[in-house]
Amino acid sequence: MIKKWYFYASLVVIITFLSLGFIPNKTEAKPWFLVEKTDGSEYIFPSKEKDDYPNTNVPYTGNHLIGFKEAVAFKESQGKYRLVNSLGYMGKYQFGSNALRAIGINDNKAFLKDPALQEKAFTALLAKNKWILRYEIEKYNGKIINGIEITESGILAAAHLGGAGSVKNFFKNKGGRHFRDAFGTSLKSYLRDFAGYDLSFIEADNNAKVND
């Protein structure tokens, strides 16, 4: 009887030991973009400030084009190339079909499967919007409108959200009326949140196209 007790007790101990080996280790992975709180401050990556990257594996992109692209991409889709939202907007930068047609892309399925094409599309649309909004950029860059400092990158980000026409309407009404998308995201928030990036590398081009 005692031997049986020892046998079953040993069996329980062995099973418990083995099962512990299969419990996943809970480690906190740091995503590419995250919110950190240090010394009472809060910021969202990617930041234009190098000091906002202490002891992280997040690459510092500064205020250059790559930083702008990744910031917009994270806001739009969390950087997911295959994402299609409930309204049919597609890819890392959430393009609509009309925007794709405007830059020469006619195959939505091919676009969704091709990350390189999506990157080219975003750059082409920036160039096209920069030409359409060239007068607004020249006239309002550096000015304060409705509490928001206007910059070229903010204007181009806002055009990506609501189209160049909505940006023109914002300035026409001196910031008193502004676009919101179907999810409630405001054009003003894009003007503010994506201000201050250096997009001088992008040349204004009304005929910017991408061959798909």
Describe the structure.
A hairpin with a 2-residue loop joins β3 (144-145) and β4 (148-149). α7 packs across α8 (164-172) and α7 runs antiparallel to α9. The longest helix is centred in the first third of the chain and has 19 residues, at 2-20. It is built from 9 helices and 4 strands, in the order αββαααααββααα. Helices cover 45% and strands 6% of the residues. The chain has 212 residues and is mainly α.
Short description:
This protein has 212 residues and is mainly alpha-helical. It has helices spanning 2-20, 65-77, 97-102, 108-113, 115-132, 134-140, 152-162, 164-172, 187-193, and strands spanning 35-38, 41-44, 144-145, 148-149. A hairpin with a 2-residue loop joins strand 1 (35-38) and strand 2 (41-44).
Secondary-structure map:
Elements: H1 2-20, E1 35-38, E2 41-44, H2 65-77, H3 97-102, H4 108-113, H5 115-132, H6 134-140, E3 144-145, E4 148-149, H7 152-162, H8 164-172, H9 187-193
Antiparallel strand pairs: 1-2, 3-4
Helix pairs in contact: 5-7, 7-8, 7-9
